[in-house]
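Bumping my old thread because nobody answered last time. Still need a sequence for this structure:
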């Protein structure tokens, strides 16, 4: 098993509540996030979506796709969304949102390991390529959410 930890930040000229709504609405990601091929809700969770379970299918710049299920384990509107994933990636992801003067900082912490044998086998050599690929997907997400919210993506990193 190969472990990865990624930290991504988007700075958006948009109110935190609007950004939170877009991230929270995972079923709509394929409409604005290049790389998210499909999101299927398997369990709706409670009225806020806590406990929801979805299957996500991602295709990145590199010629492979990843499928995993994500369960929402913690919600603090409009500050925090946490989830656990299982499938071809397993681990956790945490979205944290901060706002100052109309600009929202979105910080995504992705702590996962790969479960596909070929990815684990190639990890010692391909780790930098997999990391670059993750960054490519997250950059498309930052661009997409800015388009969706009709705002400016101030920075991505």
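Sorry it took so long. Here it is:
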């Amino acid at each position: 098993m190969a472990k990865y930890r990624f930290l991504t930040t988007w700075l958006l000229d948009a109110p935190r509540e609007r950004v939170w709504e877009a991230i929270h609405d995972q079923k709509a990601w394929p409409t604005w996030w290049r790389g998210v091929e499909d999101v299927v809700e398997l369990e709706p969770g409670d009225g806020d979506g806590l406990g929801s379970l979805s299957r996500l299918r991602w295709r990145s710049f590199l010629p492979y796709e990843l499928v995993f299920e994500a369960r929402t384990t913690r919600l603090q509107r409009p500050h925090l969304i946490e989830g656990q994933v299982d499938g071809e990636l397993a681990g956790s992801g945490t979205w944290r949102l901060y706002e100052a003067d109309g600009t929202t900082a979105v910080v995504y912490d992705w702590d996962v390991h790969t479960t596909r044998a070929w990815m684990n086998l190639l990890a010692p050599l391909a780790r930098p390529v997999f990391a670059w690929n993750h960054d490519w997907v997250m950059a498309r997400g930052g661009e997409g959410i800015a388009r969706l919210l009709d705002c400016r993506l101030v920075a991505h990193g």
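The longest strand covers residues 65-76. Let me know if any region looks off to you.
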